Amino acid sequence: MKIASFTPTTGGKVAIKEHAIAPMNNPHLITSDAAGNIWYSEGFSGDIGEFIPKTGAHKNISVTPPSTSTHISGIAVDSKGRIWFDDSLSARVGYYNPATGTTKTLTLSNTNAHPYNGLGVDAANNTWFTEEFGGPTGSLGEVPAGTI
């Protein structure tokens, strides 16, 4: 599997560079941290991945056991460098802290919420996510800074 970067050129063309990652990875969504490292969610594997463009190094980090009831989807980085993710099939939101190597998760009260793809962190480090099946029209969830 690969992830790719693209750079517009002055001539109007786009230069695309593909980067190979571990063969069993299935990158889903992608973000970057303040150091320019690339982080991606890996769906059913229960992992997130890190790619370091400066060195070409990459690694997988297990944030939940792989399972057919797990799908790591949304991914975002907060100002403390923590990598936030949602697990749509297990109705969980959590983060991985690269500085400590620890993962913390929070199971949502609505186990059918299906937090999927939409995940962001605001300037106050509150984490926001969508709940596709959170109610008749879906809903927006929040994990206030310092909650987990």
Description:
With 148 residues, this protein is an all-beta fold. The protein is 0% helix and 47% strand. It has one domain: 7 Propeller (Methylamine Dehydrogenase, Chain H), CATH 2.130.10. It contains no helices and 13 strands. A 4-stranded antiparallel β-sheet has the order 3-4-5-6, with no helix packed on it. Strand 5 and strand 6 form a beta hairpin. The chain starts with a strand and ends in a 5-residue tail after the last strand.
In a nutshell, what does this entry contain?
By secondary structure, the protein is mainly β. Helices cover 0% and strands 47% of the residues.
What would the keywords be for this entry?
globular, 0% helix, four-stranded antiparallel sheet, Methylamine Dehydrogenase, Chain H, mainly beta
Rg computed from alpha carbons, rounded to a whole number of angstroms: 16 Å
Helix percentage? under 10%
Given the structure, what is the number of helices?
0
Written as H for each helix and E for each strand, in order along the chain, the element string is: EEEEEEEEEEEEE
* Beta strand %: over 45%
Spatial strand sequence of the major β-sheet: 3-4-5-6
Q: Can you tell me the overall shape?
A: globular
- CATH architecture label: 7 Propeller
Number of strands: 13
